[in-house]
Amino acid sequence: MSATPKIEPIGAKVPEPRQNDPDTLARQIVEKLTYSICKHPEQARKYDWLRAVTLVVRDRIIDHWFPSTDRVRDSGDKRVYYLSMEFLIGRMLRDAINNLQLTGPIREALKRYNVELDMVELLEPDAALGNGGLGRLAACFMESMASTGVPGVGYGIRYVHGFFRQEIAEGAQVELPETWLVHGNPWEFERRDSSYEIGFGGKVLTQQEPGKPPRHVWRPAERVLAVAFDTPIVGWRGSQVNTLRLWSAQAVDPILLDAFNSGDHIGALVESNKAEAITRVLYPADSHQAGQELRLRQEYFFSAASLQDIIRRHLGENDSLDNLADKVAIQLNDTHPAVSVAELMRLLVDVHGYEWAKAWEITRATFGYTNHTLLPEALEHWPINLFERLLPRQMQIIYQINADVIREASQTGFDGAQISAISLIDEGNGRRVRMGQLAFVGSHAVNGVSALHTELMKETVFRNLHELYPERIQNKTNGVTPRRWLMECNPGLTGLLTEAIGPGFLDDIEKLRDADGLADDAAFREKFAAVKRANKGRLADLISDRLAITIDPGAIFDIQVKRIHEYKRQFLNIIEAIALYNQIRAHPEKDWTPRVKIFAGKAAPSYVQAKEIIHLANDVARVVNSDPSVRDLLKIVFIPNYNVSLAEIIMPAADLSEQISTAGLEASGTGNMKFALNGALTIGTLDGANVEMLEHLGEDNIFIFGLTADEVAQRRREAHSGRSIIDETPLLREALDAISAGVFAPESPARYHSLVSNLYNNDWWMICADFEAYWNTQRELDGLFLTQDAWQSKAVHNTARMGWFSSDRSIREYAKDIWQAGPGKVR
Ligand code: CJB
Which residues, renumbered to this chain, carry the PTM N6-(pyridoxal phosphate)lysine (predicted)? Predict the structure, then answer.
């Protein structure tokens, strides 16, 4: 065969750049409608316009995608692979249009056909392939890697059903399936040439030749195909396009024809159903181990597929895997992909013939591990017999790694208790594999996600491993992408800031500092407040449309949106609302500041207490909102189905951001950053990234209350009941009495008995202990809101001083300190 001729891709090559004027765009949109969608423009439906615009934008992304990919390959630069079970992306069109700076021209182009860009953007379903903070962080990191020039590839799972849809029926959460792929997904490209067989079960054969170490060959009993789907991630100003590669599971044999031919039509599809089940649905457990076999299958499936892909790419460009760690950094986003450590060892030793010690050196140099929680119930551990049955060779490898680590610890002088703490095998609870320990020992760098969280990692869960490897743990405080979380969600504020300090902050968000002095400028404050007011109006409209509740944009919008969890303490917020309700009615003569308390968030379907908290919020809302004696001074709203798109409307509309977790339990938080960046003041505990926000904002601009992490730990050791505090705090007691008496659930007065009695018995989440401080701080904020100048001045300081909390900064730190990759790499 003759050599393939060099074929240049079509596209925007200098000297013929694509035209981005409205005329060209309008013509191309109609071309797509006609030739890709096969619709006459006059008959086009809303979804057809969405698809046509997406395809036009996608062409431009592809123009940047090819050169980005070529550049990395040709330069031989190190690539970063971000392995994550979750990518909570949300909508993609607006992000892409913004980053390519096509918002104005596309808006203009669509106007020619009487189509509104905003309407079209709202039709796109959220890609909800994640549960909450961890998944959203992965999405921000992907965007920031593309924006800061880090050659990154995200690897995850292409769930057919993302995070469930939440409806509220009679006050309670109902879960419904999410179906983001029903209209097809124009952003993804199926890559059947990148598919790999993934094994499960079976046995390990050991071959022993004289004078040589034994060779192990894994013979899996089952095989499943992992097929790649690629989505482009376009960075700011389109300078770089990275790839998000999601794996979909398919059967190797789509149908068992023998079974079908013998009349077993259902049995013929069993294999295919079993295979496809692996990537069918996202587990809705957040900060909680989902201990089922299918979950372990998901974890291994995407880890193994990603590693095969990484190795294939590496060997296509290099002679061997000797230099893998020079060319590849793999970041484990939590322990979900931690089995990768054992799998890479298997590939290096069993498949590529490396001796154990060399393979271990390569493995550790390649991996980094990010921990996102210290909650004991969230730490992953798998029963040994399940692990062994599903992944027999990986289990042997884990035993061998464990033996090596224990030997090292013994040589360092560790005693029995210390050794059992670092062991990869938990011998205490029916033997289990500890994924945190595996990820830790298999990585050269281990990081927490805020300064406090990182210190607590060293003192608690990883205390002994930290002693053994004192250099390994480092901090990388989280961040959020300012493109989605300021520019796109708050065009009003972005416009105002551009007018006031120039556009420099769009490229370097820390330049927002230039706006700090404007806090003292009355005219600017007024404009800043007007933007907030407009954003509040938009949220009020949404609440009115969806829930038929009228709220006053002049009231304080006091907002807590996040997963529902006991440690996040939505319950404390609701109790405070009830106490306020009681006080407003008891003291009608007082000058109360009108307040709207807004909640949103999903509970894990099996998390009983979290679901009760949602129910309580809705029950309290129903009573308070319909009580005329409150005179609209307090309104309570629970907005169903919190997701990224809803967050984009909520964040810019908040006056007050609730970040009130029990200190020491929220690893970082990222909602706290989005709110403050958009000019909300924070009421919060000294927890997670709130601590660093306090440092950046200054103590005048954030409202901190409550016990510190050390104080919480101390009180927990003493196991306090809430009873004495409740007895001594009338506001708290009356609120709890009202709940217990069924004031908010007259049809079922006992509904919240266990929620309340838990507080009396053991105030584990410090709700009673922190109540008074919380109440007092809220009243201080009431007073401040009446002095709008002072409030708005603090709000301006918040926006101006939050630039550091950009995920661009986080990514640059990872790139420099952990990956040694990207523009600022240290060789
Ligand atoms: N986090 O969202 C999750 N899921 C988990 O299973 C464990 C932790 C959150 O990760 C965020 C990103 O690091 C943190 O900001 C947040 O505090 C943490 O709860």
Answer: 674
Q: Which CATH superfamily is domain 482-810 in?
A: Glycogen Phosphorylase B; (3.40.50.2000)
231 lines ligand 1 (CB under 6 A): no
Annotated active-site residue 458? The verdict is no
**3-class SS at 90?**
strand
> How many other CB atoms are found less than 10 A from the CB of residue 113?
14
Q: Quote the ligand 1 centre to 562 CA distance (angstroms).
A: 11
pLDDT exceeds cutoff 50 at 15: no
Has residue 824 got a pLDDT over 70?
no
Q: Residue 561: what are its φ and ψ, rounded to 5°?
A: -130, 125
339-346 vs 293-317: helix crossing angle, rounded to 10: 50
According to the model, what pLDDT value does residue 494 have?
98
Active site residue 352: no
User: How would DSSP label each residue in 327-383?
Assistant: HEEEEEESSTTTHHHHHHHHIIIIIT---HHHHHHHHHHHEEEE-----GGGS-EEE
Q: Which of 562, 565, 794, 801 is catalytic?
A: 562
pLDDT value, residue 574: 99
CA-proximal residue: ligand 1, atom 12 (nearest): 134
Q: Which helix (H) or strand (E) holds 633?
A: none
Rounded average pLDDT over 768-785: 98
Task: State yes or no: pLDDT of 699 exceeds 70.
Answer: yes
CA distance 133 to 130: 8
Token pair, residue 152, equals 């990154």
129 near 220, Cβ under 8 Å? no
Which residues in the chain are classed under CATH 3.40.50.2000?
A: 76-91+126-476, 482-810
Considering the domain delimited by 76-91+126-476, tell me its CATH architecture.
3-Layer(aba) Sandwich (3.40)
C-alpha 476/C-alpha 529 separation (Å) is 33
Note if the pTM is more than 0.95.
Answer: yes
- What digits encode the pLDDT tens for the residues 372-389? 999 999 999 999 999 999
Q: Is the ipTM of this complex over 0.95?
A: yes
Residue 532 identity (one-letter amino acid) = K
- What confidence score (pLDDT) does residue 827 get? 39
